Amino acid sequence: MRNFRTLEIWKNGITIVKQIYLLSQQLPSEEKFGLRSQLTRAAVSIPSNIAEGCSRNSEVEFKRFLEIAMGSLFEVETQLVISQELNFIPKVDLKIIFELLKKEAKMINSLINRIKNS
Questions:
Q1: What is the torsional sign of CA 44, 49, 5, 113?
Q2: What is the pLDDT along the chain (118 residues), one digit of tens a residue?
Q3: How far is CA 60 from CA 3, 48, 50, 68, in A?
Q4: Which of 7, 16, 69, 75 is deepest in the core (most CB within 10 A)?
């Protein structure tokens, strides 16, 4: 069993969650149960699935949870693009989070590939 708290991808996932919660405050109040809820749930899912995968005893199971985390990351990215396209969040405000998501995706993908090749 791995200690998820020591993993850089988990720490970055927590940073992403904090940034998403801050950004989601810019969404209109009528989006509280729509896009805002979906966005924050997907963001929370990234480090949560990394942590849950760490509790698994097999590499195959750990890899599967990393793949789910990657899916949640892509979901967050898509919802941010939608927020931008609907003019809910200015493009300039999304630059930092898109960089964080890109970095996280590379790290998760790298770990998935290491597990596949071991």
A1: negative
A2: 789 999 999 999 999 999 999 999 999 999 988 999 999 999 999 999 999 999 998 999 999 999 999 999 999 999 999 999 999 999 999 999 999 999 999 999 999 999 999 8
A3: 17, 17, 13, 13
A4: 69
Whole-structure pTM value: 0.95
**Fold observed for domain 4-116:** de novo design (two linked rop proteins) (1.20.1440)
- HSE of 10, CA atoms in CB hemisphere, 13 A: 14
Nearest to 65 by CA among 82, 83, 52: 52
Each as own residue / partner, the long-range contacts of residues 71-74 (CB below 8 Å, 24 or more positions apart, any chain) are 72/42, 72/43, 72/45, 72/46, 73/16, 73/46, 73/101, 73/104, 73/105, 73/108, 74/105
Two structure tokens written together for 70? 């990657």
